[in-house]
From TrEMBL:
PROSITE patterns: MYOSIN_MOTOR
A GO BP entry: actin filament organization
Single GO MF annotation: microfilament motor activity
Name under which the protein is recorded: Myosin motor domain-containing protein
Region (Actin-binding): 69-91
Lineage of source species: Eukaryota, Sar, Stramenopiles, Oomycota, Saprolegniomycetes
PANTHER family assigned to the protein according to its UniProt record, in alphabetical order: MYOSIN, MYOSIN-LIKE PROTEIN
Length: 522
């Protein structure tokens, strides 16, 4: 299509609808909302107020559409609902051209086909009850129509029955009478036309007197059927009520009898359970007594265990009643034991008092002996003090000469460190020579690869270099061993130095302790 760039399509439920964009915005343009005009009108600026007061606010497109739809609804309500569907035969509006596809799309999109299907299966022809009552009021008289006052549906039903209209050809609604479309095998089309003619008062179906008699007969018959139906329903409800009441009474009697039987069974079972409990308790007591009657010691242990508990369960209290005499015997024994313990405690106290007295006498004798010993020890202390003074003088001389010995030892350690440094430099030089030899060996290997003719001479040279390398490696190993010996000598020297320091500290501490003891004794 040539105008395809200026169109857009919307797919509805009934088909696709095409819209042109030319003038689409102008047709569907919506003006400013009333809230905007109210905001402008409420402004404090005089210019804005003047612009709003000088013009009346125009309505929007949606508001105009709403007013038009309301007017259309009012107009439709005031007239009969007869619609004429307009179909364009072609887009060019040419009377000589009929576009079948366009017409079919219009019928499908407008829902005409679906409406025809609904009318075909439904009840399209309808007549209101008020029209029938209005038409037949003139024919039958107002006094006769008083019988059906406020019951237009009943009058319509009676009229259809009197005219022998088949029940499957019409339906009674809330306010209208509906007829089916077309004709069937049982309902000819002329019957419906006859009834419509009667409704429109074109022809009279029968004389008014006959029609009144038939309507009165139908009304009496319907009333009689209603009364009979109510009577039958009332009797059925009465029978149902009495049957339900009898059923409830039977259920109450059954429940009472079953309750009586259940009470008897429960009482019997409770008696059986109570007797079985008493029998089991008696059997348990007999077994316990038989088990403890042979050994008195077991009875005593059981009684002691029971007495440890402050409270006992009800089923164990009979044990205290059974062991009551033994409990009293234990109480008497406990009192005798307490008296015996008091007598023994008194004897032990007297023995302890005698022992304390003897120990005090021994302590006095020991004190006298210690005084004599202290006198002798004081004399010995004077001699020991003189000896200690001599030893202190010798230790002071030793302490004064100790820094010289330590300086000599430090010089020796520095000499050892210099020797270690020299040996380390020699080892580094040997390592450099070994690296140089390796480089030479690599050069020789490269020359061996490049010259095949001088291979034998190079092999000899390589062997000689390898021997030299082995010699240097042996010398390097000897130097490493020599360096390890020097490290061991250094470690021994450090250990000896540490030992001398510890011994000196120990002698100094012991000497200080002796001096403190002497000062304390003095």
């Amino acid at each position: 299509m040539a105008d395809a760039p200026y169109m857009f399509c919307i797919k509805h439920y009934a088909g696709v609808v095409r819209y042109h964009i030319d003038g689409f915005i102008d047709k569907n343009n919506n003006v400013a909302s009333p809230q905007f005009h109210e905001l402008i009108a409420g402004s404090t600026r005089s210019l804005l107020n003047m612009s709003c007061m000088s013009k009346t606010p125009p309505g929007s497109v949606s508001e105009m559409f709403t007013h038009q739809m309301k007017g259309l609804v009012v107009e439709l309500d005031s007239t009969r609902s007869n619609f004429i569907r307009c179909i364009k035969p072609n887009a060019a509006m040419d009377a000589r051209v009929f576009d079948h596809r366009s017409v079919l799309d219009q019928l499908r999109c407008s829902g005409t086909i679906q409406a025809c299907k609904v009318l075909q299966v439904g009840l399209p022809t309808r007549v209101s009850y008020e029209e029938l009552v209005f038409i037949y009021s003139d024919l039958l008289g107002a006094s006769f129509m008083e019988r059906f006052h406020g019951r237009d549906r009943l009058f319509t039903q009676a009229l259809c029955h009197v005219l022998d209209f088949p029940s499957d050809a019409f339906r009674l609604g809330d306010t209208r009478l509906f007829f089916k479309t077309g004709s069937t095998r049982d309902v000819p089309n002329y019957r419906k036309i006859h009834l419509l003619d009667t409704v429109l008062a074109v022809t009279t179906p029968c004389p008014p007197a006959t029609l009144q008699a038939r309507l009165i007969s139908y009304l009496a018959k319907s009333r009689w059927i209603s009364a009979v139906t109510k009577t039958v329903v009332l009797r059925a409800c009465d029978e149902l009520f009495w049957s339900c009441r009898q059923g409830r009474c039977v259920v109450v009697l059954q429940c009472w009898f079953r309750q009586h039987l259940a009470k008897r069974v429960v009482a019997k079972r409770r008696t059986t359970v109570r007797l079985s409990r008493k029998w089991n308790l008696l059997l348990q007591k007999t077994q316990v007594r038989a088990a403890f009657d042979r050994s008195v010691q077991d009875k005593l242990e059981l009684l002691s265990v029971l007495l440890r508990h402050q409270t006992l369960p009800p089923h164990a209290k009979w044990l205290l009643t059974w062991l009551g005499p033994m409990q009293r015997a234990m109480y008497v024994r406990k009192l005798g034991r307490a008296a015996c313990m008091a007598y023994l405690a008194k004897r032990a106290f007297m023995a302890l008092l005698n022992k304390v007295r003897r120990e005090r006498a021994a302590v006095r004798l020991q004190t006298q002996r210690d005084v004599a010993r202290l006198t002798l020890e004081a004399n010995e202390f004077d001699l020991v003090k003189a000896c200690l003074v001599e030893k202190v003088a010798s230790l002071e001389s030793l302490v004064s000469s100790w820094p010289l010995k330590q300086a000599a030892f430090d010089v020796t350690c520095s000499d050892f460190a210099m020797q270690v440094t020299a040996l380390t430099s020699e080892v580094a030089a040997k390592d450099a020579e070994v690296i140089d030899m390796g480089r030479r060996l690599e050069i020789v290997q490269a020359q061996l690869d490049s010259s095949v003719d001088a291979q034998h001479e190079l092999d000899k040279h390589v062997h000689r270099l390898q021997d030299e390398n082995t010699t240097w490696m042996q010398r390097s190993t000897a130097l490493e061993l020599q360096m390890a010996d020097l490290d061991n000598m250094l470690a021994l020297s450090k250990a000896r130095y540490a030992t001398l320091v510890v011994e000196t500290d120990a002698r100094r501490d012991s000497f200080a302790t002796q001096v403190d003891a002497v000062e304390t004794n003095l």
